[in-house]
Amino acid sequence: VYRDLRQPIGTLGDASRTQEVIERYASMVEMEMEPFHYGSHYSSAGVVLYYLIRLEPFTSFAILLQGGKFDHADRMFDSIAQTWTGCMKSTSDVKEMIPEFYYLPEALVNNNAVPLGATQGGRQLDDVVLPPWAEDSPVRFVQIMREALESDYVSATLDEWVDLVFGYKQRGLAAEEAVNVFHPLTYEGNVDFEKLTDEVERRSVISQIDNFG
């Protein structure tokens, strides 16, 4: 029922996935590159827009991020199960949930009739598809999520997750041992902007940090 809060999201699921990111890290060390396990981040502006695309002002910002149009429907937030599966299988998808899952059922409903498009399979995106236990009720989904967050299990292990996200396992040897190292641009102070003399490169780095760092 519960995920293992002692591990970063990128090491959950198939063991081969964890092995893949560890090997990539080791390969980067050998090539004398600044190593990381994950090229994306567990939380960013892009992640927030992904989850909240059905609500303004996030709808407008999501369109802006994609250059004036919506992303392809197959890549948009459509289903809780589909999103969870992606986070369990893909080494490039390590996003965490956002606070709104625990208090804002409106984020799961397309009350604004946002034209999200159709998948390649022909299904029109609308409200978020919920797990069977939610009984098609966003309110029930949020209620159960909150109950899970306040459970004894989470209370007993949440400090482990805090260490990964906010604490000593964010950087350095502890992060490496926990398989919790992210792309260098996601860390504060890692970029010396004074050395970025090429304007195109500078804008590219700033855009990546703003939206995905």
TrEMBL record:
Signal peptide: none annotated. Coiled coil: none annotated. Residues 1-213 form the BEACH domain. This is BEACH domain-containing protein. The lineage of its organism: Eukaryota, Discoba, Euglenozoa, Euglenida, Spirocuta.
